[in-house]
Amino acid sequence: MSEKRIVTQPRPFITSIVSNQWTSGICGCFQDLPQCCFAFWCLPCFTCKTAHEAGECLCLPLLDAFGVIPPMTTALRVSVRQRYGIEGTVCNDCVYACFCGPCTWCQIAREIKTRSNPITFVNMAA
Predict the structure, then answer these.
(1) Closest by Cα among 124, 10, 21 to 80
(2) CA–CA separation, 18 vs 86, rounded Å?
(3) Contact 113, 36 (CB under 8 A)
(4) Alpha helix positions (H), the chain
(5) Are 84 and 76 within 8 A, CB to CB?
(6) CA torsion angle 90 95 96 98 (round to 10)
(7) How does pLDDT run across 5-60, given as a tens digit for each residue?
(8) What is the pTM for the complete model shown?
(9) Taking the CB of residue 119, how many other CB atoms lie within 10 A of it?
(10) pLDDT for position 82
(11) How far is it, in rounded angstroms, from Cα 113 to Cα 81?
(12) What is the rounded CA–CA span in Å between residue 40 and residue 26?
């Protein structure tokens, strides 16, 4: 007598977390220490690298030196916020750019890095 055996393989349960908030706070510079050190020791180089990673002109951040309100920092923060669907206002972006410039650049770089390499959880038991 032959028995029919049915074997079912577990299916993976994939979850991906997409948030409408920044993945790190404005003062979360120490979450990525190498980037924090790079920004601290050579902010102009760091801003140019970050602008390039965001798909903008490499030298665009250098224009920030010519204004009271850093227009490129504000514009790039707004751009990244809109690209990833992060809630916020242009007013907040402007305040962060004016009073927390280096921290803003670090936050933008962390966001690009985090959103470019999303972590996907796979649960084989489900």
Answers:
(1) 21
(2) 10
(3) no
(4) 33-41, 43-53, 71-83, 90-99, 101-116
(5) no
(6) 120
(7) 766 666 655 555 667 899 999 999 888 999 999 999 999 999 999 999 999 998 88
(8) 0.77
(9) 8
(10) 95
(11) 14
(12) 15
Question: Which phi and psi (to 5°) does residue 122 adopt?
Answer: -120, 120
How much is the pLDDT for 17? 60
Q: Calculate ∠ Cα 39-117-86, nearest 5°.
A: 75
**DSSP for residue 63:** G
- Residues 61-84: pLDDT tens digits? 888 877 777 899 999 999 999 999
- DSSP class of residue 68 equals S
List 14's β-bridge partners, or say none.
122
